[in-house]
Amino acid sequence: MNRSFLPAALLLGLMGLLGGPAARAQSTPPTIAPPTTTSPVFPINQPQTFRYTDADGFGSITFVDLGQDSVSGFDQLQVTLTQNGVTFTGSGIATPLPGADRPLNNLVSFTVTDTAKNAFFFSGKMGLGVEFQGEGTYHPVSDPTQLSSWGLLFVPGTPPPGPSTPLSLSVDRGCGNNYPFGSSIVVTYNSSTNDTLTLTEQLPDGTQRVLFASQAVTAGQTYSLTGTVGNQAGQRTLILRSAAGTEVSCTFSTP
């Protein structure tokens, strides 16, 4: 997830009042039905963990359903998202969508923040088909135009498939997103082992420049590098390489 997936207010309905001719109209106060009680989206107070994915790679996401809010009828959720060694925590809501086809028959919306207080808003749909799955979009709370896609897959507790790379690399707006000329960019990276790393940037014209070389890093520790985006338009690729030659990349674009 690009670092940075908020409570959402949902409009449930609109009531119109119709009357007869004024001389015969009678004042009848409108009635408002109480919230409909439905089954919870998840078992109450039982953590449900899924495989999470977005442009920054795989991770895990855990929901704890705290039960329905007494006013809205929506399920209240606690949310924990972990990806690339970073943990985000927050809360939100979920509710069934009457008449919606499985598996995406539940609405979900939540906000999470990391330890640096970067906040992200997520919305989407999820539900149980052959397996539980979900999808949607997220963006930094401060900039709703920076949309990225997210997904969750498989039954609770399923780990990501296949071997994972010991390296992780991301940018503050998320890999695959746009940066204006002259804007600040924060590159975040880490390694699951003690290593020496080299970071290279491939520019839109195909040339490369080394941002740092043979930097010693400690296993599990996250590092960051802040820079300014140049004025060459097109796609740029950051490439993080270990001493053994393992690579991970992250792309972003300039107008």
Keywords:
elongated, Immunoglobulin-like, mainly beta, eight-stranded antiparallel beta barrel, Lipocalin, four-stranded antiparallel beta sheet, single chain, 2 domains, 255 residues
Major beta sheet, strand line-up? 1-2-3-4-5-6-7-8
| Main beta-sheet strand count, sense and barrel state | 8 strands, antiparallel, barrel
Please state roughly what percent of the residues sit in beta strands, choosing from under 5%, 5-15%, 15-25%, 25-35%, 35-45% or over 45%: over 45%
User: CATH fold name of the largest domain, please?
Assistant: Lipocalin
Radius of gyration: 23 Å
**Succession of helices and strands:** EEEEEEEEEEEEEEE
Number of helices: 0
Average per-residue pLDDT, rounded, comes to 82
CATH architectural designation of the largest domain: Beta Barrel
As residue ranges, the low-confidence spans are 4-25, 32-37, 159-163
Separation of termini?
Answer: 22 Å
Annotation, overall tally of beta strands: 15
Structural class: mainly beta
